[in-house]
Amino acid sequence: MFFEKYDPLKEEMFAVLDKDGKVINKDEEPDIDDETLLKMYRTMVLARVADVKALQFQRQGRMLTFAPVQGQEACQIGPMAASDTKDWLVPAFREAAAMLYKGVTLEQSYLYWYGNERGSQFDEGVNVLPVNVPIGSQVNHAAGIAYASKILEKGESVFTYIGDGGTSHGEFHEGVNFGAVYDVPMITIIQNNQYAISTPRAQATKAKTLAQKAIAYGIPGIQVDGNDVLAMYRVAQEALKRARNGEGPTLIEAFTYRLGPHTTSDDPSIYRSDEEVEEWKTKDPLIRFRKYLSNKKLWNQEKEDKLQEEMKQYVIKTFKKVEKTGQYGPDDVFDFNYETMPKDLKKQKEDYLAYLKESEGE
Amino acid sequence: MATLTLLGAINHTLEQQMEKDKSVVVFGEDAGFEGGVFRVTAGLQKKFGKDRVFDTPIAEAGIIGAGVGMAINGLRPVAEIQFSGFMFPGYNQIAMHMARMRNRSRGKYSVPMVLRMPYGGGVRALEHHSESLETLFAHIPGLKLVIPSTPYDAKGLLTAAIKDNDPVIYFEPKKIYRAFKQEVPEEEYTVEIGKARVVQEGSDVTVVSWGAMMRDTLKAIESLKDEGISVEVIDLRTIAPMDSETVVESVKKTGRFLVVHEAVKTLGIGAELISRVNEGAFFHLEAQPVRLTSPDITVPLPKGEHHHIVDQKRIAQAIKKLANFE
What we know:
The complex is a heterodimer. Chain A is α/β, with parallel strands linked by helices.
């Protein structure tokens, strides 16, 4: 049995690649076709470039506060690549890479962080929930979506993400426990990026690993090298097998690092050293995966340069479009709170529109 | 036609809706096997199985949050919070998600969910078992809140709530769960959410109430029948969205307005109603509008409850005073 080989109480971490992209666990190297491997890499690069550029736009005063994903691309792309289109993604708020892989467009992602809910109106067939800000509360949604999938026999599995800080929250417990009690097809991925804003992981729990929390719920828990996209893919495959066989939820702790700030309003230099960040940069998930692809003769410097340029242009073009289309009219404010607008709200809208008309040209 | 208590009408409606719509599921603490501590869901698990009627862990955020997820993915959850005073751990889910998912996703996801909660006092219960928290829900955009006061409305409002594509909080006045019976049609029908009911027409005073207080209000009016006061009585039925039109039209006719509720005074629903009466019928008022509510105190333990909730006698006195004001 896969999960029994890695004991979270002994801090046994599952990995496939070392930080130089060499396969260190040949038996568990997932069999992924070239096209998918390249799609995974492209999406990781897109997420990275979109993040770096958004940070620039934000510093120029063109983008609002957002939660950068840099450093955590592998924990997100691996599992999403292992999932089926119909499987759900229930994100917290730092899952831009996972969302992009599941079919959320960059334009939508940018539009959301630009300050417009239209960025959360995903296309038909994209089973992704909007960004979830209140810490931990999304885990219960995942449990419910998975419960519905189970009793309506939809065959969908549900991935949800939470941070190391989020595991302190009561709703993490309630959601994982609910899922476990009813054996629902639910996979909870804890992205342990070492900090809840500034609070280090050791301040959040006395437990040695976050994966070991699974033991109390009676489900498998495993700690995985979260910067190893192949390990994340492989472990998700096994978790999906359980989910699809009706064996219930799995808890995955992805051991990773947030290379950027918590949000653009955060200054991480206050609570962590440059040395620590530099050390983690050598474990960058993109570098590692690129080396793996190069070793497989699927990638080279020329392709890399071309892709970087292509993504840069695409990201700039998309952001400029969002700056044009991201504005907000009164209808956007009023029209989506209810399926049918209550009478009194209608009156409030009319009053506001009348005011706008009256004050036109003033 | 069956003769049912309010509790019986709810049970009958859940059974009817579960039969008609396979996506309706019922769950909560002890709501499955036992049928709930008040037995509102009695017999449903036996009939519809454990997948559709089930006991949950004692975790209100889990119950409500999972319900939100179920609603997003094709079910019509009817979740029970055992007592409304225990909804606070789940309030995060109510305010942050149940109420907002439609707006957040620009309509891609809606939450067609009903959250049932027995509310109110008068049953000599422990602390936290007797609250009236209407305001906490009515204040949140995206939520609807209904409160039946009769078995007929209990069925019609619950049917409407289950069919609604937006979340509805359904308050159950537990004090009158078994207080009286009424003829309830067997066939499906709805009572429109957002529509108050004129219980009796009158020309001197408008009295608005809802839930368990409706019964005390009607008894008070009955006790005044020899006083020659013509009272128009309105059962608000839906707290949000509020049917101010029916109330305002009535006050335009009577010029005198009394609202009676069990919840505390400050920022209670009465405050909102009076604001709306002022906005809509100001020049028709012949007396200052009156709120008869519980005082702004913590709900006392049972020995103090009679000081807390207004009774028939006080309501009668207030109506008399208002009618005679010159």
